[in-house]
Amino acid sequence: MAETTDGAAAGTSPGHHGKAVGISVAAAVGGFLFGFDSSVINGAVDALSDHFRLDAFLSGFVVSIALLGCAVGAWYAGRLADGWGRRRVMLLGSGMFVISSAGSALAFSVPDLLLWRVIGGLGIGIASVIAPAYISEVAPASGRGALGSLQQLAITIGQLVVLSSNKGLAGAAGGAANDLWWGLPAWRWMFLVGVLPAAVYGVLALLIPESPRYLVLTGRDDRAASVLARVSGERDPRAKITEIRATLRKQHRSSFADIRGARFGLHPLVWVGIVMAAFQQLVGINAIFYYSTTLWKSVGFSESDSFTTSVITAVINVVMTVVAMLFIDRAGRRRLLSIGSVGMFCALALTALAFSHQRGSGNDVSLPSPYGPLALVGANAFVVFFALSWGPIMWVMLAEMFPNRMRAMALAIGTASNWIFNFLVTFSFEPMTRKVGLTWLYGAFATFALLSFLFVRAKLPETKRLELEEMTGETHRRRSRNASS
Questions:
Q1: Radius of gyration, CA atoms only, the chain
Q2: Which of 18, 83, 230, 368 has its CA at 20 to 30 Å from residue 141's CA atom?
């Protein structure tokens, strides 16, 4: 099928794109909670570690255990979405966010804190699958890259808001461990603030329409036609429904039968999604966003300056994600990913060089001039290139690159892979920092950035401006060969 070049060519009405944007923004609030809940631990980790007397292993486990919940939530989200519908699963995620935020704030022991963190992780995992899947299914092909990037933009805004909130709460109390209001220390309020956006997410999930592709899957063609006409601006929604049904093949929930292949039991395209999701974490982005405050304190920054530095990094992340949204449908996915991989490699190598001049040990370390500023430049340059490329584009491609018959299951597997590698990197970061040092860690991240470039050039298909119904294994192979030649 010929590649579409604009909304009209695809049979959509540009005048309806505003509705698709509004609904996509509402769905992307799940991404906001994803960023908020996953990064709230950043400012609280030192204070709660002191409160519960956690050693390095337990401290890392408290931070990372939520990510195991994320992997489980992502794994089941696809099947739940095909069985319950996208909106109901969003409501489930909202409820888990509320429970986790309140429970973590009021935790009285390590076991119950771990429980609330896992519940929050389940909610994050659900949101990380449902939001991009839903957006890809309501967005017109000509703008799907930008709208799909709303997920990552919402994540970065959530990270910025929570880091700013953490800084404000810690500043008001004179430190994260000091009491603030009602006898609760500031670190507990850092968690409690999350109840409000979680409740907003639940309300918005009740207001948006169900995905037209889910409605077709469950035989509700009239409602699907209405959503396609009102939201996606389809001029001939009945023809679109016929096209969707042809690609779904059979009316049942996604299963492993849909993603089976000859290579280690999975379709080759599913393996591409798994590896892509792994690379997004193996470059070390969450070493910045989960541990940045602790990291900068460890090399001589004051607590206040460490919070400020983390907020500045979050602002950079938001701004560059917006830039990526402006170019993703023009430049294409593969080109931006390639640029990002090269930029991340250079920035991470610079950061590793700066940390190689670290002086001291334990809690008494510093970076002599000019290596302290050099480390900041390298870390923030890394965030610039990540936000321009692998941050938003990985989520866009996971949501759009698979054929309809396997999309929910393949997206869930790819997202679960992302969370598993997120856990491995996050859990090992603090112990490995003490064991091998930051130079070797950032050197390893730089190596993975270089490998990600080779992976993009060799394996990743271009999905720019393709309709979801055009996504087939043969289409991807042809486009990947053409892009590589």
A1: 22
A2: 83
Q: Is residue 225 part of a domain?
A: no
Mean pLDDT of 314-338: 83
Least Cα distance to 292 among 275, 278, 311, 276 occurs for 311
Q: Is residue 445 part of a domain?
A: yes
For residue 47, give the CATH number of its domain.
1.20.1250.20
Both tokens assigned to 269: 């395209």
Residue 6 lies in a domain: no
Peptide bond into 373 cis (omega under 30): no
* Contact assessment for residue 385 and residue 339, using Cβ atoms and an 8 Å cutoff: yes
Whole-number Å distance between alpha carbons of 232 and 225:
10
pLDDT at 250: 47
Each residue of 89-107: pLDDT tens digit? 888 888 998 998 899 888 8
Tell me, what's the pLDDT at 82?
74
Q: Which of 351, 284, 306 is nearest to 46 (CA)?
A: 306
Q: Is residue 451 in a domain?
A: yes
When divided into structural domains, the chain yields a total of 1
CA distance 485 to 482: 5
What contacts 351, CB < 8 A, 6 or more positions away? 375, 378, 379, 382, 442
pTM over 0.70: no
**292 vs 116, residue with greater confidence:** 116
Percentage of the chain surpassing pLDDT 70?
76
Q: Residue 246 corresponds to which tokens in the numbers above?
A: 């042809």
Domain span including residue 309? 16-208+254-484
CA distance 302 to 176: 13
Among residues 394, 348, 430, 448, the alpha carbon closest in space to that of 64 is found at 430
